[in-house]
TrEMBL record:
GO biological process: DNA recombination; DNA repair
Stretches assigned to the Helicase ATP-binding domain: 282-445
UniProt catalytic activity: Couples ATP hydrolysis with the unwinding of duplex DNA by translocating in the 3'-5' direction; ATP + H2O = ADP + phosphate + H(+)
Residue ranges of every copy of the Helicase C-terminal domain listed in the record: 464-629
Cross-referenced CDD domains: DEXHc_RecG (cd17992), RecG_wedge_OBF (cd04488)
Enzyme class: isomerase
Enzyme Commission code(s) on record: 5.6.2.4
Annotated keywords: ATP-binding, DNA damage, DNA recombination, DNA repair, DNA-binding, Helicase, Hydrolase, Isomerase, Nucleotide-binding
GO MF term set: 3'-5' DNA helicase activity; ATP binding; ATP hydrolysis activity; DNA binding
Cited PROSITE patterns: HELICASE_ATP_BIND_1, HELICASE_CTER
Name by which UniProt lists this protein: ATP-dependent DNA helicase RecG
Source organism, top-level taxon: Bacteria
Function: Plays a critical role in recombination and DNA repair. Helps process Holliday junction intermediates to mature products by catalyzing branch migration. Has replication fork regression activity, unwinds stalled or blocked replication forks to make a HJ that can be resolved. Has a DNA unwinding activity characteristic of a DNA helicase with 3'-5' polarity.
Length: 697
């Protein structure tokens, strides 16, 4: 159904084909509807002026009235910089330009007062604004509207006079023609219950707010709506899934009882017991399990997985466990084989490096049902891998797998979808989990096995390296092992490799008495594995590596994790890395090495790591620093497509919207009642763009 909102934007007043083409290309905006949803990313209060002494780093853009004392250009031709020193009656600051210098310099007159506008940053003790907007004070007109919308724009748009002001002018025309056409999308009952303003008013006020209160309401309404439809879609899928996806009934516990009695090497934590109960509840329910287990590194997810495997095998089904890397698959295989052997179960490993002849045998044994447990990498997904009766599929560290890949697992049992258990060591804040995995059931292992000593984390500068080396030596002499990790950023692989090699050499020079391993992404899987194994066995004392070791590897004797260039890692990555140590009974340490100058965000990341070991707390900070778009898994989930709502800040609105969606579905599961027609239409529209959520795991 085509509507007014599908009209191409080139027909809009003041637009024309050229500008429209730019909107298409630069912003991916084609229609009235899309443009109308191009919301301002902030509003400017151009009635407020700051004194230089009032500035602080937390301020966004500010206006300062000041005069210029001196202008100078520094640096060579390649990295030229223009600096203007400005002052008011309270202090001094700087303005800098890196581009368009010849053009700017002409405007920088000494004498008259200007209004400068931009984001203040602190360098040393002085504030500086890079590329400020500027206007002579004499020409500044008094602003009528106290909240001007600011739209993000691009160089190319700006070149065609589509800066924020230009976009705002076009938006004015659009809002005028669109206003009478805007229809309500939420049911009346919800609007009343949550005191929302109408869609019509919200859309107008979000672009051209009349006062702060109504702007607040407009934002609330639009955020609510955005969350509401995402949640509604997810909940509806979950409803459909639980209704339609029959699950094999796996309710036998013979092996489990035997294992508990005879072989369980430690007492399960309360959290592990709870999660086992939750998973068992699903497996015996007759509905397909689709459960995510979140648990910090070292919280003991593998044991929970094995227990579920025992239930499945007791009940006559086969099981698979898929890991993202060969190293990890190997390790899982080794760890679980020990238990499987004790229990008399047949287990095998299938990866890219499995020999052809072995592969063939494995394929046959899976098909005949002789193999109870198969551990592997992506190799498990190949079509040739067929089971007699796959009952349980476990996916470790799920963010490494694409949605489509995981969906392939589902196809491996014709009669029933296998029960699916996804394990992740990336703690996700509740708000994000509700959106990312809204159609999965979530279990959390929020307790560490007893007797673990919390890892001590410190931040050290490069100049302290000798001391750090001294510490490493002491630890190794006490019998421990040490990781030294270097960042790997894809864009400059060669540079990173050089960095790693340099580091390796300097460590070899510093510790000629110890055998040292090195592992990086450019090595063949076999060589990687060989080195990794040497370290696991304790033959080598130091493991120099890139982030290949990030995921899951377990070397209980390793007690020190050194992260080089720690400022280049994200928080969740640092936390993952730290999780490699602290797995044994000894006190463990994490040393974050950085250069001396650090950005504000880097500092917050490092301070957070030093302050806490709690993965969920870290994930929260991460979400606040980076916004949800950058977090693992969010790109493919469509969360990054949220236009106005922000998962890191709008958790309360999300909760309300989810409640509203739940209530609606309780009253009208099919959304077939007349007052919900509009809602149904909205979800259907959304679906066209979204991935198939029912197959996320
Ligand atoms: P992760 O959740 O990171 O996958 P693992 O399953 O690898 O953690 O467990 C980390 C270590 O803790 C392993 O050596 C495992 O044997 C041990 N472990 C797991 N559960 C317990 C427990 N309840 N008590 C003591 N040690 C445990
Ligand atoms: Mg693990």
């Amino acid at each position: 159904m085509s509507s007014f909102f599908d009209t191409k934007i080139e027909y809009l007043r003041g637009m024309g084909p050229q500008k429209a083409a730019l909107f298409n290309k630069e912003l991916n905006i084609f229609t009235y509807g899309e443009l109308l949803q191009y919301y301002p990313f902030r509003y400017e209060d151009r009635t407020k002026f700051y004194k230089i002494i009032e500035l602080n780093e937390d301020l966004e853009n500010v206006q300062v009235i000041a005069k210029i004392r001196k202008v100078e250009t520094i640096g060579d031709a390649r990295r030229k910089r223009l600096i203007a020193y400005i002052y008011d009656e309270t202090g001094e600051m700087e303005l800098t330009w890196f581009k368009g210098i010849q053009w700017v310099v002409k405007k920088l007159l000494i004498g008259p007062a200007f209004v400068f506008y931009g984001k203040p940053n602190k360098y040393g003790r002085k504030f500086s604004i890079a590329h400020p907007e500027m206007e002579p004070l004499s020409q500044v007109q008094e602003e009528k509207s106290f909240f001007q919308p600011v739209y993000s724009t691009t160089e190319k748009l700006r070149a065609k006079y589509l800066d924020s002001k230009g976009i705002s002018r076009i938006m004015e025309g659009l809002v005028q023609v669109a206003y009478p056409q805007i229809q309500e999308t939420l049911p009346m009952e919800i609007i009343q219950r949550f005191s929302l303003i109408s869609k019509q008013i919200a859309l107008k006020q979000i672009h051209f707010p009349e006062n702060p209160e109504i702007l607040q309401k407009a934002r609330f309404r639009l955020k609510f709506e955005e969350f509401f439809f995402v949640q509604l879609r997810l909940l509806k899928l979950k409803l459909t899934r639980t209704e339609k996806s029959k699950g094999q009934i796996l309710n036998q516990t013979e092996l489990l009882t035997k294992f508990y009695k005879e072989h369980l090497p430690f007492e399960l934590t309360e959290a592990q017991k709870r999660v086992v109960r939750e998973a068992f509840g699903d497996m015996k329910s007759g509905k397909q399990m689709n459960r995510l287990i979140q648990g910090d590194v070292g919280s003991g997810k593998t044991m929970v997985a094995f227990i579920c495997i025992l239930i499945a095998v007791s009940s006559g089904a086969q099981t698979c466990l898929m890991a993202p890397t060969e190293i990890l698959a190997n390790q899982h295989h080794e760890g679980l084989k020990e238990y499987a052997d004790l229990m008399g179960l047949r287990i095998a490993l299938l990866t890219g490096s499995t020999k052809k002849s072995t592969r063939k045998i494995i394929h046959e044994m899976l098909l005949s049902g002789d193999l109870h447990i198969i551990i592997g990498t992506h190799a498990l997904l190949e079509d040739i891998v067929q089971f007699k009766n796959l009952g349980l599929a476990i996916v470790d560290e799920q963010h490494r797998f694409g949605v489509a890949q995981r969906a392939k697992l589902w196809a491996k049992n014709e009669q029933y979808f296998p029960h699916v258990l996804v394990m992740t060591a990336t703690p996700i804040p509740r708000t994000l989990a509700m959106t990312l995995y809204g159609d999965l059931d979530i279990s959390v292992i929020d307790e560490m096995p007893k007797g673990r000593k919390p890892i001590q984390t410190v931040h050290r500068y490069d100049k302290d390296r000798l001391k750090v080396f001294g510490f490493i030596r002491k630890q190794i002499l006490e019998g421990r092992q040490v990781y030294v990790v270097y960042p790997l950023i894809e864009e400059s692989e060669t540079l990173d490799l050089k960095n790693l090699m340099d580091g390796y050499e300097s460590i070899c020079r510093a510790f000629p008495e110890f055998p040292i391993s090195i592992v990086h992404g450019n090595m063949k899987a076999m060589d990687k594995d060989f080195e990794m194994q040497r370290f696991v066995k304790g033959e080598t004392k130091i493991m120099v590596a890139t982030t290949v070791i990030e995921v899951g590897v377990n070397v209980p004797n390793a007690s020190v994790m050194i992260v080089e260039n720690a400022e280049r890692f994200g928080l969740s990555q640092l936390h993952q890395l730290r999780g490699r140590v602290g797995r044994g009974a000894d006190q463990s340490y994490c040393i974050l090495m950085t250069k001396y100058e650090l950005s504000k965000d880097s500092r917050i990341r490092l301070q957070t790591m030093v302050r806490t070991n709690n993965g969920f707390e870290i994930a929260d900070v991460d979400l606040k620093l980076r916004g949800p778009g950058d977090l693992m898994g969010t790109q493919q989930s469509g969360v990054a497509d949220l236009l106005i709502a922000d998962l890191s800040k709008d958790a309360p609105i999300l909760t309300m919207a989810r409640d509203a969606a739940q209530l609606l579905l309780q009253e009208d599961p099919e959304l077939s009642q007349p007052q919900n027609t509009m809602v149904l239409r909205q979800i259907k529209n959304q679906k066209k763009h979204a991935i198939n959520w029912s197959r996320i795991s």
